[in-house]
Each structure stands twice: as structure tokens, then as C-alpha cells.
Amino acid sequence: MAHVLLDGGNFFHKKVADHRHACIAAWDEMARLGYAAVTLGDQELNAWDLTDSLLNASPLPVVCTNIEHRVGGLWRPLGHRYVITEVGGVRVGILSVFSEEEMPRVSLQQLGARYRILDPRETTRRVARELRDRVELLVLLAHLDPDVMEDYAVEFEEIDVIVGGHHPRNDKQPAQFGNTIVNRSGRRGQVLGQTRLVITPRGELVDWGGHNVTLERTFPENAEVAQIAIEAKQKDTEASRARRRQGRAGG
């Protein structure tokens, strides 16, 4: 059985200034674990300076199909427009979609000079059609409202699977809308979403299932990763104390 690891965005902490090292640790761990693709959410875009530095230094495959940023006066794709990877002999195409409705208006105004959001539906339609004949399986990472994900599933028949999870809604398992499988697995890293697909050697999707697991405190931890998290938290605590001392000295 082959696995594809994906993330739909908002893996940074909301208060990046107080949790900078934890955010970096999360990014680095996804790269180390071999994630096939991740997309960025509003929390990563709001922390633009940190995100930009990691994009330039990390091998983590970031896919932002309808987001561009300004480089040398020109608009370029933010990360990759899409990714094609082979898993168990099956070619999997991965694209993403981000709606500006998922970001506060003030954030759009503040960062508008740095990046732009292309029309979500039009860009999804164009890139999905471009990829359809090149892959056996097409996956959309959706940073969208849960109900809008259902609309996309019905509208874009080219897409086989839609995954997302930055809203509170947590489906217990994937569901099908039209011919597309949708899995919405909550937010804040509290739920591990699993979508199981059965694909023939000819690349035909013949069965599907899965379930979403809530990561309770009793869930087994990897000791090495737990230590990385502890060290990141300690660094963030030390940095926060240093800022408070500096603030008192300056006052």
C-alpha cells in the first residue's frame, strides 16, 4: 500500500511572533517526512517574511495554483503551480485553490503588493484540464469553506479527490459529491484525515473509503518528533521572555 502525505494549509500558529520556532519545526518536519505537497493558508500568508524565507530554503513542495508573488517586478507562481508525483505506479497530479474570502480584508490590503490571488474557479478549471491527460489521479488541496468544496466537487469533474481542513467542520470520513471524493478533516492539526483509494493498474479508481482520526493526548507519539516540539517551544518561550525584558528596558 502506497501513501501520499498532503496538507491543506494553516499549519502555522496564529500568533507566529510568539511561536516562530514551532512554525519552522512544523515546516521542517513535513519536509523530512516526505510530504508530496502542501498548500499555504491565510496564516502562512499573514506571516509572509517567515514563509518567504522557508520557501527559499526548504525542499518542501509548496503548491499554490492560484497565488502569485512579485519577483523582480514580475508576477511568478508562489511555490509550484502544481506537482506531479508517482505513487505505487500511479501518476498523481496535485493542485490547490485559495479563496480570498478565507483571509481578512485588512490582510489582503497589507500584503496585496507582495502577492495576488487569481480567480479561484477559472484557474482551477484551466489547470485541472491541463493536468487531466497527464495523470491517473487528480487531487485538489482546497483552502475553502466546507460547503464550497462540495460545489467544486460537482463543478470540476476532472478532479478525483478534494482535501481540506482549516474550518472547524470535521467529517468522520470522506464523502462523494458528483464523481469527486471530498475529505474535510477539521483544523489546528487536531485531526489526521485519511482517504483510502483503490486504483487498478490501468489507473482506474474502483473503490474508496477512509476515516479521520482525532489526535487525543493518548495518541502514541514519536519520541524524536516530540523532542523537536519541546525544543521549539523552549526556544519560543526564551524569545518571548527576551522581548519582554527588552520592552521593560526600553520603557
Could you explain the architecture of this structure?
It is built from seven helices and 13 strands. Strand 12 and strand 13 form a beta hairpin. Helix 1 packs antiparallel against helix 7.
* Total count of strands: 13
* CATH C-level class: Alpha Beta
Coarse shape:
globular
Radius of gyration, Cα only, in angstroms? Answer: 19 Å
Whole-number mean pLDDT: 86
- Counting structural domains, the number is 1
* Discrete helix count: 7
Provide the low-confidence segments as ranges: none
**What proportion of the residues form beta strands (DSSP E)?**
25-35%
Q: Into which percent range does the helicity of residues fall? A: 25-40%
Q: Note the main sheet.
A: 6 strands, mixed
Structural class: alpha/beta
Keyphrases for this structure?
251 residues; Purple Acid Phosphatase, chain A, domain 2; 7 helices
Concise structural overview:
This protein is α/β, with parallel strands linked by helices and 251 residues long. The protein is 35% helix and 27% strand.
SSE blueprint and pairings:
Blueprint: E1 6-7, H1 20-33, E2 37-38, H2 42-46, H3 48-57, E3 67-71, E4 74-77, E5 83-87, E6 90-98, H4 105-111, E7 115-117, H5 120-132, E8 137-143, H6 146-155, E9 161-164, E10 175-177, E11 180-184, E12 191-199, E13 205-214, H7 223-250
Parallel strand pairs: 1-2, 6-8, 8-9, 9-11
Antiparallel strand pairs: 3-4, 3-7, 5-6, 10-11, 12-13
Helix pairs in contact: 1-7
